[in-house]
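Title: Prediction job returns without error message
Component: structure pipeline
Severity: low
Priority: P3
Assignee: unassigned

Description:
Job completed but the reporter wants confirmation the result is attached to the right record. Sequence as submitted:
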Amino acid sequence: QVQLVESGGGLVQPGGSLRLSCAASGIDVSIYNMGWYRQAPGKQRELVATITSGGSTDLADSVKGRFTISRDNAKNTVYLEMSSLKPEDTAVYYCNVRRVTGPRYQYWGQGTKVTVSS
């Protein structure tokens, strides 16, 4: 059974930092691209950051220079380092993995809430 478990969300003041983690079980993440999406209240889910199985990264324009995505295949984990947080970063953040070889399976985590407010 595949599980993605996010952690690290919470309440933070504007300008603050958080580190999200997503630990995968039941899969070998080395053959998956990994990413983070977010969904703010009343808005569609949007892509925040991706990291390929080879380690190449891409970030949404709205978070470039503030967020960093990384992965540790030995720990089956992907991270999202968030700094200089803004109220508009408030959302539920979801981890996503997509297989890059063989069947194109993808899986989602349950989400972790990030609230940026003073």
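Comment from assignee: result matches the submitted record. The longest strand covers residues 91-99.
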